[in-house]
Amino acid sequence: MRVSLEEEAARAGVSVEALAEEAIALLLETRRTQAHFAKLCAEADLTVLDKVLNRVGGEPPTAGDELPEGYVRKF
Fold first, then answer.
1. Cα gap 37→45, rounded to integer Å
2. How far apart are CA 19 and CA 1, in angstroms?
3. pLDDT tens digits in sequence order for the chain, 75 residues long
4. Residue ranges of E strands in 1-75
5. Among 73, 25, 33, which Cα is nearest to 53's?
6. Can you give the pLDDT at residue 57?
7. d(C-alpha 6, C-alpha 8), whole Å
8. Phi, psi (5° rounding) for residue 9?
């Protein structure tokens, strides 16, 4: 792994430490983002979404916006 890190750092023109720091920062940000969206999902009120999506009126879907044939709702 050390050799791969050294090769990538050389390609990027940075030190191994800087490359490792960037990788760790990206990993942490990814985990924070996943946690944020998991929290939003857990707090979502799907009954409100159903009311909005099933309301009467408005315009029909434009061409290409229809649900695919055989679509099955997963939640």
1. 14
2. 13
3. 889 989 999 999 999 999 999 999 999 999 999 999 999 999 999 999 888 888 887 788 789 888 889 999 887
4. none
5. 73
6. 78
7. 6
8. -60, -40
Cβ neighbours of residue 75 under 8 Å, at least 6 residues apart? 46
Tokens for 32, please give them. 């924070």
> For the chain, how many residues are written?
75
Two tokens, residue 25: 């920062």
Distance CA 75, CA 54 (A): 15
| Helix orientation angle between 16-43 and 2-12, rounded to the nearest 10 degrees | 100
SS3 26: helix
CA distances 72 to 28, 41, 61, 68, 75, Å, are 35, 19, 18, 9, 9
